């Protein structure tokens, strides 16, 4: 089964992202707006049971931190993906690094660029038009993040939460 790890922002940020995603992101019905912390990886039940204590440990060692979104950006020329740029912070980078060491699958395909996708798989002309419009728009979001989620993929391709891990809690 496929698993992944993400942070879900507040409803306010999700609503803003979804106002674009429903038109420009074919993954809109499959997963809410999120910040991917660990790309999808294959795991069986015993592996997940082994990873859950590690996820609890990482969450316990992590303090809540602030994320900021001030603009849109894109992954061109690699892909015509447009996203809300989450400003990198030492805390966010440290969380990412902890989830890519030790028992965790080493499945990094790209450098870590914290973001919330709002459009992807766009045709060149459509991409240029949409990005041009969004670059003129002001995005100002700031909020505290205090948890991440382990997700799994259902047979229909959608993702759902397996378990949430709150920062700074005692190990269970």
From TrEMBL:
Motif HXTX 2: chain residues: 115-118
Keyword Transport annotated: no
Protein name: Putative phosphoesterase H8S33_10645
Organism for this UniProt entry: Ornithinibacillus hominis
UniProt KW Plastid keyword: no
Active site, UniProt feature: 34 (proton donor), 115 (proton acceptor)
Span(s) of short sequence motif HXTX 1: 34-37
EC number: 3.1.-.-
Gene3D superfamilies: Cyclic phosphodiesterase (3.90.1140.10)
Family named by the database record: Belongs to the 2H phosphoesterase superfamily. YjcG family.
Superkingdom, natural source: Bacteria
Keyword terms of this UniProt record: Hydrolase, Ligase
């Amino acid at each position: 089964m496929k698993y992944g790890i993400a942070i879900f922002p507040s409803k306010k940020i999700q609503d803003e992202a979804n106002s674009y995603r429903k038109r420009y992101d074919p993954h809109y019905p499959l997963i809410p707006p999120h910040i991917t912390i660990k790309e999808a990886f294959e795991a069986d039940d015993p592996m997940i049971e082994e990873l859950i204590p590690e996820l609890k440990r990482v969450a316990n060692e992590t303090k809540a931190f602030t994320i900021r979104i001030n603009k849109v950006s894109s992954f061109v020329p690699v892909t015509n993906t447009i996203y809300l740029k989450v400003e990198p912070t030492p805390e966010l980078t440290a969380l990412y690094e902890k989830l890519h060491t030790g028992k965790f699958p080493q499945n990094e395909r790209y450098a870590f660029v914290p973001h919330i996708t709002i459009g992807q798989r766009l045709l060149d002309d459509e991409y240029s038009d949409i990005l041009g419009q969004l670059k003129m728009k002001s995005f100002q979001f700031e909020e505290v993040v205090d948890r991440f989620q382990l997700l799994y993929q259902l047979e229909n391709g959608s993702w759902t939460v397996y378990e949430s891990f709150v920062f700074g809690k005692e190990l269970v």
